Design the sequence.
């Protein structure tokens, strides 16, 4: 069953998405990032300049030729199945289709009430599907 992790209280969803993708890159994990085109275009720019000395390899799913094998992150507006059941980073307000194609889904939730309300609904939907859920409060003090 696909595990779902909610990362709550992100002050900047895209900055946190970059951190998640960078962590995946260091562990050799591939990430499919699902979102609407304008948001993904902002993320694309951030991934080019995440730090002054690093670059995170990423690829648009609809680029030609599509060769996701070289990219840590694949950006797309519709879920695409990738080899090895990678992580799905969901930046939409809906539960993505084809959850079984991914070993893990990560949801990033900002402090905006509209975002929190949509996340609560997704949480209920994932529960109804029987997905194991994790909650990570980004505002909580680190131990």
Sequence:
């Amino acid at each position: 069953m696909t595990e779902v992790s909610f990362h709550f209280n992100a002050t900047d969803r895209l900055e946190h998405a970059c951190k998640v993708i960078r962590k995946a890159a260091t562990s050799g994990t591939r990430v499919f990032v699902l979102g609407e085109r304008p948001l993904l275009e902002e993320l694309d720019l951030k991934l080019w300049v995440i730090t002054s000395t690093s670059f995170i390899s990423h690829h648009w799913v609809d680029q030609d030729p599509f060769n996701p094998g070289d990219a840590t992150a694949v950006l797309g507006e519709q879920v695409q199945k990738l080899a090895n059941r990678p992580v799905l980073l969901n930046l939409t307000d809906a539960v993505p289709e084809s959850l079984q194609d991914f070993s893990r889904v990560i949801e990033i939730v900002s402090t905006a009430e509209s975002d929190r309300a949509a996340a609560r609904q997704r949480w209920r939907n994932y529960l109804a599907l029987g997905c194991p859920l994790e909650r990570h409060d980004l505002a909580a003090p680190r131990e």
In short: The beta strands are 3-10, 31-34, 58-60, 73-76, 87-90, 104-110, 133-137.
